[in-house]
């Protein structure tokens, strides 16, 4: 008899990819995904602990599932992901109704763990040594024939090329929750991409916390392969119409990678290159290993290779010790680069990070003020940037269609709405669109026939 599985995913694309893998693994055991937690046989919360707020969301959801657990004694409630890895069994102190806590590298054992719970083995006995798990090469090969639940976005998929992170930015939990950096063998990556393309996937995003250091640390691959070589090999696979990658560290952005943007046709001109701060003093305390000038120089060279490249970034405001002048340096950098988009966050202390121990914490109201100023300026820039596309003809890959027209995405990662589209296009198909309007967050245009 089939059992139902509900997964709620928080956090980044690594977690989204892990949830897909979990779905695949459990599909082989007869679990069928369901869209609602009510009545599910197994509920898994795939968690993120990058910022305090992310973790609070996890705990409030776990709390709200208590009545469901009481109502349905057969329900198994599990916690996976970065909070599970970080907090381990301590989660149960706050949330005693949780049955299972599974670290980031242990999701492959979920079928066996759920089996044992069903057989009446207690969750304490199943508890595993999370530290030890980091020694196991964690890559899961794509399971042939078992695809995750079909989604309207099935034409684009993530492919993990590396796990973990060795950068140890002073504020960041990721090296602790995902372990040391390990690069996946190139042959496995190419095989997975080829299988996906065979299944009809047209857009591939290579995924990792620090993809541009691929192959330089803790190589699982035997050969000497770096990220630009991997990119070229993936791009050459027939059927890969669009290729993207995320995330990159500015210190590992080489001239050769910049050249890829000029030379690889199907590599999209969109680059997420988190700077975090425009102040050298703050960057040093963050352990980012570059200066604002290094970063700006690289941006300039990158634009020489590919003038239409759309840049995006992550920013932390209110890092410990950030002065008004430091913050202004971030605003200056924003005004110089004029990002097409950004994700900006208030700094928050995280467990076992070095910056949590730093003095000079910036007060909450001040962090909020700086964040609002940054976001207000970024919004203006987004609008100005979007206006630059008016009158241009761009290619979109269709993402969704409805009676109200269609929505697609440009290679530069802009969303385009075509309200009057009458042509019959399906998600994943390409079309040329003439841009007529720009908003802060999206563009509008007409399909060209
Ligand atoms: N590996 C990627 C992304 C890491 S997490 C990278 O290095 O760019 C995504 C973003 O969360 C980071 O870029 C950073 O801006 C933010 N972040 C991480 N830790 C944080 C913290 N303690 N407080 C606030 N923001 C944080
Ligand atoms: Fe965290 Fe820095 Fe690694 Fe990104 S590069 S995951 S911010 S430690
Ligand atoms: Fe969050 Fe873990 Fe990703 S902390 S951002 S889910 S690697």
Q: Nearest-angstrom radius of gyration? A: 23 Å
- CATH level 4 superfamily of the largest domain: tm_1862 like domain
Q: Remind me, CATH topology of the largest domain?
A: pyruvate-formate lyase- activating enzyme
CATH-defined architecture of the largest domain: Alpha-Beta Horseshoe
Instruction: Provide a count of the helices.
Output: 16
The fraction of residues in strands falls at 15-25%
Instruction: Provide the domain count.
Output: 3
Quaternary arrangement of the chains shown?
Answer: single chain
| Largest sheet, strands/sense/barrel | 5 strands, parallel
What's the end-to-end separation, in Å? 51 Å
Short description:
With 449 residues, this protein is α/β, with parallel strands linked by helices.
